[in-house]
Design brief:
Layout (H helix, E strand, L loop, with lengths): L21 E6 L6 H14 L3 E4 L4 H4 L9 H12 L3 E5 L7 H6 L26 H18 L5 E5 L14 H15 L2 H7 L27 H29 L5 E2 L1 E2 L10 H4 L7 E3 L8 H15 L5 E5 L18 H11 L2 E6 L25 H15 L7 E2 L4 E5 L1 H7 L11 H15 L3 E5 L9 E4 L7 H12 L3 E5 L21 H4 L1 E6 L8 E2 L5 E2 L4 E5 L5 E5 L9 E8 L2 E6 L4 H16 L13 E7 L3 E8 L5 E2 L6 E2 L10 E2 L4 E7 L1
Parallel strand pairs: 1-2, 1-9, 2-3, 3-4, 4-5, 6-7, 7-8, 8-9, 11-12, 11-13, 13-14, 14-21
Antiparallel strand pairs: 10-22, 15-18, 16-17, 19-20, 20-21, 22-23, 23-27, 24-26, 25-27
Helix pairs in contact: 5-8, 6-7, 6-8, 10-11, 14-17
Bound molecules: alpha-D-galactopyranose (GLA).
InterPro entries: Beta_galactosidase_C (IPR013739), Beta_galactosidase_Trimer (IPR013738), Class_I_gatase-like (IPR029062), GH (IPR017853), Glyco_hydro_42 (IPR003476), Glyco_hydro_42_N (IPR013529)
GO molecular function: beta-galactosidase activity
Enzyme class: hydrolase
Length: 679
Amino acid sequence: MTADHGPRWLRWPSEPSRPRLAFGADYNPEQWPREVWQEDARAMRHAGVNIVSLAIFSWARLQPGPGRWTFGWLDEVMDLLHAYGIAVDLATATASPPPWLTARHPEVLPVDHDGRTLWPGGRQHWRPTSPIFREHALHLVRAMAERYGTHPALAAWHVSNELGCHNVYDYSGDAAAAFRAWLRTRYGTMEELNRAWATAFWSQAYGDWAEILPPRLAASYPNPTQQLDFKRFSSDALKDHLRAERSLLAELTPGVPVTTNFMVMGETKGMDYADWAGEVDFVSNDHYVLPGPQAQDELSFSANLTGWLAGGRPWFLMEHSTSAVNWQPVNVPKKPGGLARDSLTHVAYGADAVCFFQWRQSAGGAEKYHSAMVPHAGTDSEVFRSVAGLGATLEALAPVAGTRRRRAAAAIVFDWDSWWAAELDSHPTSRLRYRQEALDWYSAFAAAGVRADVIPAGESFEHYDLLVAPILHVVPGALAERLGAYVAGGGHLVTTYFSGIVDEHDHVWLGGYPGALRELLGIRIEEFGPLPGGDRAELDLGVAGTLWSDRIDVTEAGVEVVARYTSGDYAGRPAVTTRPAGTGSASYVSTRLGPDGLGPVLARLLARSGVRPELPAALAGRVELAVRAGEDADYWFLVNRTDEEVEVGEVAGEALPGPSLAAGRTLGPRQVRVLRRPA
Ligand code: GLA
């Protein structure tokens, strides 16, 4: 933990030690006349709201010009909320610079890889490395901290908003200068950089730091290590902004915890949150449901990973939606019960705060068709009634507050370096999707009714009997050693195609694939066999692979062939292998099997590792289990993943009451039940 004050939770203004879950939203009163504020506060109280995030996009309203400050309206809102017992997660308001700033200093605007300026008119149009932006932002942070640092409603600081949502990759002159400085720190000498970047290739050897640029639009494929380092640098540049705001807040208001909202969801991949998690007092996340057959699994996967980014401690769900969003091609509302199920799934994976974007649906602006707690229809609406029901439910779940995640026996390893490197261009296939492979394994675990944690690669592996590391592409020596020690210690490791291929510089481990893991797996691959278009490679388990296949030779005695290809170029050759090692094992899956195709492979891996479902077999695939561990009891969250009613039968435990929770022996469609089970 590098934050100035270790992990800390919200500072509740009243009854600070009373256990409770936080419930609320982004609140944007500046979009509404003053009369509405009173109405808002009353409706918030009615719905059980106890916290709001305020001032996220208020810079222009707070500082209408250089040296001009208009805090009066925010003073009034803060006081009003406090009078109603509602705490404030106060934004530093630096998320979107006002027009006067970008008009005076167009040099703060980001530039894309094609040299095009990203102009104002939307939001987040600032360069993470701009010294001018940083100066103005910190000026605002100071003003906010001095004005509100001792306000009784203040529960936490909310740095900026979704750092990197729109501006993670900036190719401007500022970015070039900062990238060079970052590279100097990383490599020290030109020789080291030239070696790491393999610049002997295509006449790219650099003689001076000043010659280096970000990977701007090039005549052909830009250097892959330059691209990978630019991704690392870009994540670090935003982290540096977070640290700058956080340090100033820590200096001015040391008693107030600081967070920023991550975006662990879908293909948002520019920020290495495993690396950022130590920078905040508590982890916060924003998550929006991505439609499709794996929607519920994707939500659960994201919540699960967020919980382990937080080290198993409680975290803050800063945003999700009550119903439709506005940024999909087609924005479908949630089904009845979907609002509560989504929220409670996050709680199941450790969220001690459930907040939405936003409190009141905007009448104007780009997000007016995005759902909110109070929809355009007003409080006399299904959405608002569901919101109030959820508020009462969260109140009833107060005993869960402060409890941690109960580890599963299995885990999926998630690694940003591998995500970034495996999806670079000039690869055997351009269709590989790192997160999708990890999600497919997660869905396969869910279908088998087995809990699996989703952990960052830095987490200790020793907790787990079964460890799946899908597409673990970047394997530096130290990681290979950790995996070897895990297997030697009796762990069961599983990895997949395109794993163990390169070191931290994206240089191939020589001698045959999967380089760094070749000996551990007891196999050797001379050539990859990516599968074009809709090509499938059948396996003798009755399932088919797509995307990838490998020509595998078994090189160690004792390696078992779990499945063979029965069609395609490698028919008759191994497709899935396991090398037993003492009481542990190392397995390899050479193709993309998808959530269903992974089923028979996972069944064998579960049997070998002795990992079993904790719920009755009849519930597998239909009811998801997540467990939180308290001091004297565990809390089992049973989530109906389906749109059908499910008979739960006898699962021991005392059911917690709550208007959004299922009681009795059945779970209605999308319903959740919470059971208290004395430890
Ligand atoms: C993000 C932002 C919010 C809002 C929502 C809409 O999460 O932080 O301000 O734009 O998306 O889904």
